[in-house]
Amino acid sequence: MNTEYSSLPRRSLLRAASAMALGSTVPGLAFSQAKGDTAQAQWPDKPVHIYVAGPAGGSADVVARALSDQINRTAKQPFIVEPKPGAAGVIAVNDLLQAPVDPYTLMVGVSSIVSEIPHIVKMRHDTRKAIMPLAELARGGIVLVAAPDLPVKSLKDVIALSKSSKQGLSYASYSPGTMSHVAGLILGQASGARLEHVAYKGSTAGLNDVMGSHIPLMFDGLATSLPFIQSGKIRAIAITSPQRSPLLPDVPTFQELGFPQLTYTGWMGLWCNSALPAEKQLMIQKLVHQAMDAPAFKTVLGNAGFESGTHRDSPSLRTELLADYDRVGKVLQGVDVRI
């Protein structure tokens, strides 16, 4: 028996049943439904935690802070950004899925957390099913950069230099399993370049070693490498986006250089636990899309080398992720890269 109703006197129950039959409202019962509607309308009524699948200062962190800064201008409760670096974003995913299933714990991370990383990194959860993309916050390609004293000026030079050495050339990635890693594999397969992967925990450490000439090459996100390219501390060789970046108009695309298989634009997304009810997912999407439309948000992204995301819904984002997962799987067939 429902204990909420069993505690009412019999006459009250009869009156309630009669009122319901007549289509009327029973004050005590209507309050419960109204309370639920009010709670949803007032979200957030406590701080919202945004886990970042990457280190502080990385591309995901830049996007997460731009989003939280925009939302915090109008929200009654703060959106708190919490970087969780390590294990190619797996730590952030695990923490998201261990948190209560509610709209107060979310995650910002790159699309490769579903499309690429599971092929290479052993994961506790199947991210194709366990997490849901709520919004495409920003899009961007990655750029191949070289150490300042590396004797190359073009991609052709990089390929030739790698072939001329028995050891080849090492290239850094900001995390194993990401496009930063996979791009080097694709370039090696397509060109015959001898490239040896070295994984780093985030862009900062890898870029420091490239600037210090401890490692010759790196595939990195434009947001983190752009300041060092502009200051001349590293040299940009080529970019994976379909068109040249307006921030680096002299840097060619891989497609221009004859490598269309390296045309790639990943996106940075806001994610939740897939078990979160659909109405709450839509509630979050509405607020986030409003923030994405703000000129200030778009300016921050543009200055960091990102394109603004679109208002695509979760099903279309998920369809793209699954297609990319299959595509990357075919690229990696026969390559022993699982860690």
From TrEMBL:
SUPFAM superfamilies: Periplasmic binding protein-like II. Gene3D superfamilies: Bordetella uptake gene, domain 1, Periplasmic binding protein-like II. The keyword Signal applies. Pfam families: TctC (PF03401). Residues 1-21 form the signal peptide. InterPro entries: BUG, Bug_dom1, TAT_signal. It comes from the Bacteria. Keywords: Signal. Coiled coil: none annotated. Belongs to the UPF0065 (bug) family. This is Tripartite tricarboxylate transporter substrate binding protein. It comes from Diaphorobacter ruginosibacter.
